Amino acid sequence: MTLESHDHRRLVDAMLALTGAEVRTHRDRYVRQLGHLIDGEPVFRRSDVPFTDLWGLVAACEEVPGALRLLPEAVAAVDGESPELDRFRALVAIHLPPEILTADERGQIVELAGGLDPPVLLDLCRGAVARLGPRVRPPVTDLAAVLRELEDAISDPDVRPPLVAFLDDLAGRVALPARRIAGRLADAVARRMGVPPGPAATPPPAGSAGGPRPSDGDQYRSYFVVLLDADGIDASRYLFEAWLVTPGDPGRLPWHWERVPDGPGDRFRLEQIQLKIDEALTELANRSTAEIGQLTVEFIVPRRLLDYEFDRWQVAAPGLYTALGVHYPVVVRDLTRMRNSLMRPRWRTRHRRLREQGSAVQARAVAFERLTEPYVAQHLHARLLGNDDYPVCLVLFVSGAERHIQAAIGAAVTAGLPVVLWCRDRAAASRFDSYIPEVLMARSVANLRELVWELRRDAGSEGGSPEHLGLHLTLLWDEIDRVPPADALSAPV
Predict the structure, then answer these.
(1) Domain end: 46, 63, 95, which one?
(2) DSSP string covering 223-288, please?
(3) pTM to 2 decimals?
(4) Given 43, 67, 286, 318, which residue has the most CB atoms within 10 angstroms?
(5) Using CA atoms, how far apart are residues 356 and 485, in angstroms rounded to an integer?
(6) Are 450 and 470 within one domain?
(7) How far apart are CA 135 and CA 465, in angstroms?
């Protein structure tokens, strides 16, 4: 594995922030400790210049299997744990592809495949290799090599991943009772990779030429969409409109928008809007014959409200008076970008990449930004524009500079990123910095809505601490293919 130059630079910069990285003798201890972990010190040209020396160390680790993954542990043995080490460890985890199969699972697969007749096993491996494409051709007689390539292989969003397809094929070839073991293994790996267990499903019908269709994961999802716009006269009041959005016919109408009471023209304070939302949800709850899928709540708001804690609004409509973000996934969307046609090309491109991302986490899909002093949002904007397709997600580390959040979000949405995640509370920021990157690596960008919802539900459990991370998260999740009707409210002149 060879890192791209910007990934390499990011790791070196993170190492420079470590306690003793500026001192040559301290770096020597890193190298010696790593040598103990990998049975031999990495070989590279040493330098008294810290940046050059660490660049060489990271490059040498790329050449030794497993060395880069063990480098943070070598640092920990020398320096001990620290927030800087947490950051470095998370970046290494993000840049390295996760191992999809555990050692036990690999052993199970080898044992199950070993029970097949040699011609059947050869045919199984040939089929797996054929899925890898013409550039990757491991020996069909080397099952371990085939598995390694299958783990690294990616596929189009509507195509079953090669590893899952191989395990499905294996389950179909072994005899009972091994078939049940192989089937459970195939289902577990499928869920881990974010695809439905069982045989590959028939692809859904294509959308019309006139517009995009809901993704496979959204075909049963409904949305309660709340749009707020500044009054223009009274800064404490907002125009308010809300819809229930349900999936339509993918071949003709991707989404069906149904207005809920209190239409355009009404102006409310935020605390009044909270009551209106509870009333609207109560009205939906009383529709006993209505078919409403898994509900997500979206707030489309002016940029200055993106950091507002809508997820903590108390509602009673679902049957228990508690925070909205405990009942449903709650996200915010940027009204400013939605109304600016010049921003749409980049937004559309990166949203398409988000959909294609699926369960595979790539280093270039996620950008990390620390809002330290002094902070210039234009620099972030320039970096995010460096690639037309990536990143699709920005994770903000606040570090006590809350006043820069709006500027950083503005840079991200202007660059077209559909996903931004940050922590609103300085006291919880350190836990956010150490926890979110590692979990994001394990769960992927595509699962962020569910990840944040899990944290909010955990925070809402009995005895939850006010400092719980789930009480202080804001997720901007902005899908371009679901935009309010053209006659939606607009700010008065």
Answers:
(1) 95
(2) EEEEEEEE-SS-TT-EEEEEEEEEE--TTT-SEEEEE-SS-TT-EE-HHHHHHHHHHHHHHHHT-T
(3) 0.59
(4) 67
(5) 26
(6) yes
(7) 53
| Number of neighbours of residue 19 by Cβ within 10 angstroms | 14
> Residues 286, 319: one domain?
yes
In angstroms, how far is CA 399 from the centroid of its own chain? 21
Q: Which residue has the higher pLDDT, 408 or 266?
A: 408
Q: How confident is the model at residue 157 (pLDDT cuts 50, 70, 90)?
A: low
* Residue 297 in domain: yes
Residue 67 included in any domain: yes
No. of H helices and E strands in the chain?
A: 18, 12
Q: Hey, what are 264's tokens?
A: 């355009």
Task: Identify the domain containing residue 158 by its residue range.
Answer: 103-192
Q: Are residues 85 and 170 in the same domain?
A: no
The string of pLDDT tens digits covering residues 55-93 is 999 999 888 877 888 899 899 889 888 888 888 887 887
Number of domains in the chain: 3
Instruction: Say if CB 318 and CB 285 are below 8 A apart.
Output: yes
- Does residue 292 share a domain with residue 173? no
228 lies in the same domain as 373: yes
Rounded to 5 degrees, what are φ and ψ at 473? -100, 140
| Least confident residue range of 44-48, 139-143, 375-379 | 139-143
Question: Same structural domain for residues 338 and 307?
Answer: yes
* 349 contacts: CB under 8 Å, gap ≥ 6: 388, 389, 416
Whether 255 and 111 share a structural domain: no
Amino acid at 99: E
